[in-house]
Amino acid sequence: MKSLKLSLIAILSSFGLTAYAGDTYKVDPVHSSVIFSIKHFGVTDFYGDFKEITGTVSFDAADASKSSVELTMPVASLDTRNDKRDQHLKSPDFFNAAQFPTITFKSTKIEGTGDTYKITGDLTIHGVTKPVTAEFKKGAENKGQKGEVRSGGETRFTIKRSDFDMKFMTGPLGDDVNIILSLEGVKQ
Amino acid sequence: MFLLKQILPAAIAAMMVAGGVCGLALFWGKERARGVLAPGAIGLAYVAGHFWIAGWAKFPPADTTNWLPYFALAAAIVGAACSRIASLPGWARLLLFALLSAGALRILLKPKFQYGWSPGEGWLWVTGLTGALVLLLLILDVLARRSEIAFEVPLFLLVISAGTFGALMLSGSMLLGQFASVLAAAVFGSLLFAARKVELGGGVGPVFCLLLGALLVSGYFFASLPAVSGVLLGFAPVLALTPIGKPGKLLAFGIRATLVSVTVIVALAAAFRASPPLDY
């Protein structure tokens, strides 16, 4: 009777594994970065970043289409190394942090194998949701100081701020925003 | 120079639309048509200027400030309907304006309901602000009835909207400042009406009050406009009702204009003191 129970548990477990074979990673905000750059007066790019990022990545190496990414960044954590500029960027002229306190990304389609994946998803900035596609280069998987399993990767892509109804000062400030998203997650 | 390039085109567009509608109304000739087109002049001029600045956003707009052109149109319809088309009693006009204002404020302050306030707290704000807008409309009505100079009320509206433009520019949002410049330009464009002694108070009141209120509320809740500046700008017309005895027509106008202007200047000074610096 006991062996029958064990067999049943083994069969049910194997079904479970078939349905969910991926790993879930919680984004480590300390070792993840969201950096952006934008052209100023057509001269050169200035850089800024979001100090806080939270989210989860469910990754299925065997079938990437079962993977998913969900990220959230508070606009209040924006930092361009100049308080006055930060305050202006958070005002109704740009991000309008009082109305739209977060930036979110939710994947809708992931494809690829090995170290390179194409991620498509809905990016919501300034209350406007637009689909974006980016190529994600997966990094290595290693153990951290406490023995936790860490993995991550990086993607670079460009969006147009006008697509997100942020049209103020288009001209003096470029429309293209280059984004570098470097994620490190801890396996749950 | 850069600021002028940002502000002037939309302001000129608003001024031209207001002037054009006024011209049409004057050409049309009939007093009834003029009364209908007076609020339309400011409403349409604001719509033109706003879209010039912000561009066309998907409807319904995500940024609640982009509802302002729709508020302008709705208020223009209410203003026109109440002043000339339907002979509504005064209380019905106020009730209609109060309902429109409450709806507009609920839409404008949606993010505060989402991220800050409890529903009770939010509705308390909406009710209080609606009351303030109705009071402002009543004040403008009284002022329009009392004024003996055709230019008086539109001139006060111009001074207040120009002051609002300055205060919002200082509040850390040039965009809101630009929207206020469009309102000022629309009022300026409609001065053509006043030149021909067309009464502006009744029909224009709802459009001006709702737009001014929405801009000040946006400045306070979404930018850094100090409350004192918002209150002073909103109630500057009250000063024009100060009893000043019975001096000559022009002297009385001068005193009232000075009182309104001083209030606007104090509001600007308060905004300047609280202004987040944008000189980076």
Number of strands of chain A: 11
Number of helices of chain B: 13
Low-confidence blocks of residues of chain B: none
User: What is the average per-residue confidence, as pLDDT of chain B, rounded to a whole number?
Assistant: 88
Summarize model confidence as the mean pLDDT of chain A.
Answer: 88
C-alpha end-to-end distance of chain A: 34 Å
Topology pattern of chain A, helix = H, strand = E: HEEEEEEHEEEEE
Major sheet attributes of chain A = 8 strands, antiparallel, barrel
Task: Please summarize the sheet with the most strands of chain B.
Answer: none
Most extensive interface? A-B, 22 and 30 residues
Separate helix tally of chain A:
2
State the share of residues found in helices of chain B, binned by percent.
over 70%
Helix content of chain A: 10-25%
β-strand percent of chain B reads under 5%
Describe the overall structure.
The complex is a heterodimer of chains A (188) and B (280). Chain A is 14% helix and 53% strand. Mean pLDDT of chain A is 88; it is low at 8-19. Chain A is mostly beta strands and 188 residues long. Chain B has helices spanning 2-28, 31-54, 68-85, 90-108, 110-115, 119-146, 152-170, 174-189, 191-195, 201-222, 227-234, 236-239, 249-273. In chain B, helix 3 runs antiparallel to helix 4 and helix 7 runs antiparallel to helix 8.
Outline the fold blueprint.
The complex is a heterodimer of chains A (188) and B (280).
Chain A: H1 2-19, E1 23-27, E2 33-40, E3 44-50, E4 54-59, E5 68-74, E6 78-79, H2 83-90, E7 102-113, E8 116-125, E9 128-143, E10 149-160, E11 173-187
Antiparallel strand pairs in A: 1-4, 1-11, 2-3, 2-11, 3-6, 4-5, 5-7, 7-8, 8-9, 9-10, 10-11
Chain B: H1 2-28, H2 31-54, H3 68-85, H4 90-108, H5 110-115, H6 119-146, H7 152-170, H8 174-189, H9 191-195, H10 201-222, H11 227-234, H12 236-239, H13 249-273
Helix pairs in contact in B: 1-2, 1-8, 2-3, 2-8, 2-10, 3-4, 3-10, 4-6, 4-10, 6-10, 7-8, 7-10, 7-11, 7-13, 8-10, 10-11, 11-13
